[in-house]
Amino acid sequence: MSGPIGDDYRVLQIHPTLRCNLKCPHCYSSSSPQEAGELSLDLLRQTLSEASAEGYNAVGVSGGEPLMFRSLNAVLDHARSLGMVTTVTTNGLLLDKKRVNELRDRVDLIAISLDGTEASHNRMRAHPRAFELMTNRLGAIREAHIKFGFIFTLTMHNLHELEEVASFAVEQGASSLQVHPLEEVGRAQSMLANSSPDDLELAYGFVECARLKEKHAGELKIQFDATDRDLVRESPCRVYADEITNFDELAQLPLSDLVSVLVLQENGLVVPLQYGFSRAYAIGDLTQGSFRDHAARWKRETYPSFRLLCRNVFDRMIEQDKLELPFTNWYSLIMQSSCLPLR
Amino acid sequence: MSKEARGSEKLWDRIFEHDQPTHARLGEAVAAARENYKILRWWKYGQPAIDRVRTTIDVATADSGSLIQDILHSAGANKAAIILEAFPYGVPQLERVQVDVTFQRNVG
């Protein structure tokens, strides 16, 4: 059984707080400095232990700004004690030497958001010096020998900036560049409406990624987060859309065998695949019960409807295949479908 | 839909900003590519003039970047619409990629 990201990593993505030092127009979680709440350390420790028992072997802490989450170090320590791979996704502005030293033996990868050239990045970050401040922090990460990469949000309008972003990433010593299509959820829904790349733009995006991959061969790993229609058509299991009849047997498997990406939101809700996924398919609310209990119930009661949702999205993708565009944003499709009324 | 231009349009404007088109140049690029890569399909549209040429090339991922560079470089003499569509065969580690090249004269 494999999911969109394959078999190697089964990820629990944690958004412990929506508190952030920035207020980006494209933020999918509508984070901002005005947000205050955060998940408790006890809840997170227990959840990590139970998620590990269900086969999740990687944890990614995001937010909000994870460096503003007070229990970050303790959460990472606990994840490490469970043998999990740890990543932190940050805007980079708070990565001073003290924080970098704290993270040095706690994270496997720091992912830093980078949304284009300096002017574009500052505009997307709604901060006039975001690029400069972030850049000034990179030296400390390099000195600490922490592996780091950049995440570029691809919109309908910024593909031409990717080459400069890739060159910057190489100059700064980044190991990876992830090109991720803008998701029109959260604040982006109103602030950047109609700015997510369509399938045509994704096709060009792939070509440009391939070109840059060749240009920076051996220097930079470039990951393009789009779904290949041909591959999905050949392997529906990659989008959880293969035919299943033995749900009772599958309910005995670890949860990570059934869905390889989970998201723990700041409100305690654990959802499959992506922040903001419909509550109708949620694993459960951790303020109302343990991860272990929710997981057991989800496998028995909700998994069949989750699979039906995935199958419906797959069928729609194949139908749209008449357009002959090679890529689509499956995450966006399934997110939108998850929020439609249950049939 | 926002009126701002697509990023891909801005990218292409930059790549083709100086050169004038000839469809022969793209034909040369594709011919050169054929020596190194397996051609799966070839179509021609718009007889008698070759207004549109489409070819599909199956290449290993490691080679796809240089192929695309070759095509863009050769097509740099063509102030025309070049459409490249690439289809990866593996996720997350791509093994092979199929590149579709479409060349259109007198477009845009």
Description of the structure:
The complex is a heterodimer of chains A (343) and B (108). Chain A is of the alpha/beta class. Chain A has helices spanning 41-53, 72-81, 97-104, 118-125, 130-143, 162-172, 188-191, 199-215, 229-234, 247-250, 255-258, 291-301, 303-320, 330-338, and strands at 11-14, 58-61, 85-90, 109-113, 148-154, 176-181, 221-224, 227-228, 261-264, 269-272, 284-285, 327-328. Chain A has a single domain (11-228, 259-288), classed as Alpha-Beta Barrel (TIM Barrel), CATH 3.20.20.70. Chain A is built from 14 helices and 12 strands. In chain A, strands 7-6-5-4-3-2-1-9-10-11 form a 10-stranded mixed sheet. In chain A, strands 8-12 form a two-stranded antiparallel ribbon. The two termini of chain A are 26 Å apart. The relative contact order of chain A is 0.14. Chain B has a single domain, classed as Alpha-Beta Plaits, CATH 3.30.70. Mean pLDDT of chain B is 48; it is low at 17-54 and 75-96. Chain B is an alpha+beta fold. Chain B is globular and about 35 Å long. Chain B has 3 helices and 4 strands. A 4-stranded antiparallel sheet of chain B has the order 1-2-4-3. The chains are: A alpha/beta (343), B alpha+beta (108). Chain A binds chain B through residues 4-6, 154-162, 194-195, 197, 200-201, 203-208, 210-215, 217, 223, 228, 230-231, 238, 325-326, and chain B through 1-2, 4-8, 10-11, 14, 61-62, 64-66, 68-69, 72, 84-92, 97, 99.
Topology overview:
The complex is a heterodimer of chains A (343) and B (108).
Chain A: E1 11-14, H1 41-53, E2 58-61, H2 72-81, E3 85-90, H3 97-104, E4 109-113, H4 118-125, H5 130-143, E5 148-154, H6 162-172, E6 176-181, H7 188-191, H8 199-215, E7 221-224, E8 227-228, H9 229-234, H10 247-250, H11 255-258, E9 261-264, E10 269-272, E11 284-285, H12 291-301, H13 303-320, E12 327-328, H14 330-338
Parallel strand pairs in A: 1-2, 1-9, 2-3, 3-4, 4-5, 5-6, 6-7
Antiparallel strand pairs in A: 8-12, 9-10, 10-11
Helix pairs in contact in A: 1-2, 13-14
Chain B: H1 7-15, H2 23-36, E1 38-45, E2 52-60, H3 61-74, E3 81-88, E4 96-104
Antiparallel strand pairs in B: 1-2, 2-4, 3-4
Helix pairs in contact in B: 2-3
